[in-house]
Amino acid sequence: MSKLNFLLMSTLLLLIGSIPAHASDAPRMLDPQSQIRGVIASIQQGNARFSQSKSKKYFEHFAQRQTPRATVVTCADSRVHENGFHPSPDNDLFMVRNIGNQLVTAEGSVEYGVRHLHTPLLLIVGHAACGAIKASTGNYAEIEPAIKKELDSLRIPKDMDVTDGVLLNINQQVEAAMQKFSAEIGSGKLAVLGAFYDFRNDLKMGFGKLVITNINGSTNPDEIQSLIRSGKLIQPGNK
Ligand SMILES: [Zn+2]
Measured between alpha carbons, how far is 122 from 174 in angstroms, rounded to an integer? Predict the structure, then answer.
């Protein structure tokens, strides 16, 4: 660490020293400066706990290369994180995030996960109360051009209920992925799954439940359950 970095870090530590342990629980009306100090404190505390809980060996295991088993496309929403559905995502989930969990707005990243890291699973995760889906069903003509561009690629009917819209979008993204990666699916190297992360219990299956709603294009709940039970998610020779 350079002298300057050391000074900056020391100042930062002094600044955050007086912040409550659970600063992230603080009311949101705090001024930006206090919010920044609070969130940095949370990040540093969380990172300290994490790094101290892991051995050198833990990190050495994946220091040279990553070997994830799943490429995950999910929304950028702050209420959705992989620790909601994986106990230890390090080196196991190749995460791609954008508003509305879309393939087309992050195509290169998804392609890298599937074709270069060779993850056998592509998992597309939508979620309860998705703001991108809700916005796309309304009038967003006046929104900033870059955001508009990412909403324009969603294909949800106007005024559709947000939960129905999220479920529809998951199916559309799975379909688009199945088209793009038809060779990998056909040769039994890839399964594409869609799921709904339900922190609001909209599907009445439990708060925080990750509900699988699509397996390789199949959206029939009984068929999905049967496929999950059998574990036969790869479909070799179907192309
Ligand atoms: Zn969202």
Answer: 9
